[in-house]
Design brief:
This protein is α/β, with parallel strands linked by helices and 190 residues long. The chain is built from six helices and eight strands. Strands 1, 4, 7 and 8 form a four-stranded mixed beta sheet that branches. The protein has a four-stranded antiparallel beta sheet with strand order 3-2-5-6, with no helix packed on it. Helix 1 crosses helix 2 and helix 2 crosses helix 3. The longest helix is centred in the N-terminal third of the chain and has 12 residues. It is elongated, with a radius of gyration of 27 Å.
Length: 190
């Protein structure tokens, strides 16, 4: 009898309902199937997982950051800053995050083996305000002439590290009228 067997196996003081449910679950066909199931994802994995949290420069968790792993679709961070990519083939990935108001950040070499669950947290860094071309921490009259000399239009992309890139408010590698509008807002402290 199942009930007598469950009572005999139970530790002293175990509530009858708890050991009865456990014994019943173990003795049913689905309980045995679950206990004996082949778990290919665990026993013989061929994919991995990359997950992590996206944070702002102060360490606060960031909602709606766009996160990419090389060759994989886009993920968004949730209200808790969490993102994940599942079923990734084993290889080395670059994980990149972007969010309005910050320059993109990347973790360039994230190795992933089959069956591995890899954590990769990303934290944006504080950047000077767009248009701070003299690097004094704010946009003021000293930035106007350098900004105007960098205003080249949407068809001119500045190379990485160029001295005009602080004027690129929308991070598209050019300094155009969209950036001029941002410069004006920064200049007026809006």
């Amino acid at each position: 009898d199942l009930w007598a067997r469950a009572q005999a196996l139970a530790a002293p003081g175990t509530p009858k309902a708890a050991f009865a449910v456990a014994a019943l679950a173990d003795e049913t066909d689905s309980g045995r199937a679950l206990r004996n199931a082949r778990r290919a994802w665990k026993d013989n994995p061929d994919v991995g997982v990359i997950y992590g949290y996206v944070k702002d420069p102060n360490g606060a968790l960031l909602l709606d950051a766009q996160v990419r792993a090389t060759g994989h679709s886009l993920a968004f961070s949730g209200s808790d800053g969490f993102y994940s990519f599942v079923h990734l083939a084993p290889r080395t990935y670059t994980v990149t995050a972007s969010h309005a108001g910050y320059a993109d950040i990347s973790a360039p070499s994230v190795p992933l083996a089959a069956g591995q669950v890899r954590r990769c947290d990303l934290m944006f860094i504080a950047t000077p305000p767009a248009g701070d071309l003299n690097h004094d921490g704010h946009v003021d009259g000293g930035d106007v002439l350098p900004f105007l000399s960098c205003l080249a239009g949407p068809d001119y992309d500045f190379p990485s590290g160029h001295n005009c890139l602080p004027g690129d408010a929308d991070y598209d590698t050019d300094v155009d009228l969209a950036d001029a509008a941002a410069f004006q807002r920064s200049f007026r402290n809006e």
